[in-house]
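Protocol step 4 of 5: obtain the predicted structure for the target chain.
Materials: sequence only (see below). No template structures provided, no constraints applied. The aim of this step is simply to have a reference model before the mutagenesis design in step 5. Sequence pasted as it appears in the construct record:
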Amino acid sequence: QVQLVESGGGLVQAGGSLRISCVANGISFSTSSMRWYRQGPGKEREMVVEFVPIRNYVDYSQSVKGRFTLSVDESKNTVYLQMNSLQAQDTGVYFCNAYRNWGTPYDYWGQGTQVTVSS
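Step 4 output (structure tokens):
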């Protein structure tokens, strides 16, 4: 059974840092596209970063480039998102997503973790 569980969200002041985690059980990182999305208050869900190990590809949205860093610990089936220099507009629910559109396709989501940046 596939399960994605995010954690590590919280309240932080502007300029601060936070690291959120996603434990992804039941899937293979090496053949998945691992993504972080976020949805701010009154906003549509947007992709923050995508990691495709089989292509050695990482892509960050312009709004977080240079401030956020994705990392993976395959031994723990965990994807991390280190968020530095946080801004009020980074506030939202952050979701982990495991996606594949080849072979046996899938699209799994976690329940989300709330990140609130106070200005």
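Step 4 remarks: The radius of gyration is 14 Å. The mean pLDDT is 95.
Proceed to step 5.
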